[in-house]
Design a protein that fits this description.
By secondary structure, the protein is an all-alpha fold. The chain is 59% helix and 0% strand. The chain has 5 helices and no strands.
């Protein structure tokens, strides 16, 4: 029975949205940023996501710390920088750090 309940739980839209936020805060590769960037609260341009992920790879900075690179990166748009700053605040107190 609990498996059926968990299955329904993980299909709820708010839970499905929470999982990429957790992944962004806890997984170092930043893949979840692609999904989080599409959230209406953030709306990060895909070009900014690609640029930041590339910069993080080049500098070998794992996520979520790599979000801080966006604030000073020339390749990131002003809107992208502002949104990344919000994500930095969100992930700053991650239990995964």
């Amino acid at each position: 029975m609990p498996v059926l309940y968990l299955g329904d739980l993980f299909e709820r839209p708010e839970v499905r949205d929470m999982l990429p936020l957790l992944a962004l805060a806890c997984e170092g590769d930043g893949r979840a940023l692609v999904r989080v960037a599409r959230f209406s609260e953030y709306q990060v341009p895909l070009a900014d996501v690609r640029a930041l992920r590339g910069l993080a790879r080049e500098q070998e900075v794992p996520f979520p710390r790599a979000l801080e690179l966006a604030i000073t990166a020339e390749k990131i748009s002003p809107d992208g920088k502002a949104t990344m700053a919000l994500l930095v605040r969100f992930t700053r107190h991650s239990p995964c750090l």
